[in-house]
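hey m, so remember when u said the tokens were messed up on ur end? i reran from scratch. heres the input so u can diff it against urs
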Amino acid sequence: MSGVALSNTDGEKDLQSEDDVANMTFAQMQARIRTNTASPELLQRFMQHPEYLEMVRQREAALPTEIRSLDDLKAFPSNLLVTLTPDPVAPVIAEDGSVQWHYQVTLDRAPGDLAIDEFGSLIQYEKGGPWHLAHPYGRPGTREEFAELFNCPDGVLKARAKVSSATLVSTSKQPRSARRVWYVLGKAGSGRRVCGFGFLDESGHVADPASPYSAITGRDRDAFPLRAFQSSGRCFAVDWRDGEDAILEAFAKAADVAMDEVSLQWDEAAAHMNLVHAGKTNPVRRDRHGAQHAMVLVLQQVFGQTHAIRLINQVTLGDDTAWFMVESPQQWQHLEQSNPHLRWFFTPVELLPDVFNADTDEIAEAGRRYADEAA
């Protein structure tokens, strides 16, 4: 077998082969593992050693037996990435009048197979205030419920697997803002318990119930309340002569995006503009579209998780100015479910040809296809 040089931590003679692993002391094993050069056989023997098992038992005994606060979660080893999207999430009004927040949980980067024992969430209504239990089932979820929610057989999250939950819904009788933490507790093959948790901001901004969407009762373009939408605050206009800076400013105002969170930078070598957001550079390329349409597409790409841009179609085609509405993806979904006629007039920008250069019939046809998908 290949030789393995072991440190002489205990003053004992160095052990040179894998056959000698069985003769190593616990301290020698620890020393070898700290150098990150331990063999799989050594690691396995180390985790089966009585001293290691006692360390695990003592560590486990000191962990919280019940999750009631963020500090309880922080007490566990955290080796699992938990992401909640979209973040922040905007509310929608349900048919029964309640306020709902729809979101999804994604788990990633588990260091090894984890048998999930528990999952749940806490919520904080005021910054710096106490955390309250807010479990999706009114109590911590079980392994069987985890298996169903995340489509993980036997409730086991495989090493390095990336899985997402079905859509989860948070409900309130009235609008409110809150911060949610969602957690998962699992057990590794060594018996060690591992935790992962992530945060979500639930926005309290609800669309005006007297919005002009309710005035749309059919596909009659003459009855479309264009002026009401143009003055709604969620609408922005793009003229065929507008530059990227003007488009960004108009979008940011309609979407309530802080201008200090985003910037434009000209790339001299590539001869195009870049939109910079959250440290990421997003090129506004004009190779397939004109500058105006390319800019709107990049805005949709960058902010799409929280803001969905739709063209007001069928009404202003042929004008020098295009009008767009911005709502959260969840709000659009709710609006369409409650009023299918909206799909005729509001077309997702990513489904459109170049709004400023394509033939108007082609743009209208894209809107018709989108509307007929739901028919």
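this time it looks ok to me. The longest strand covers residues 114-124. if urs says something different then somethings off w ur setup not the seq
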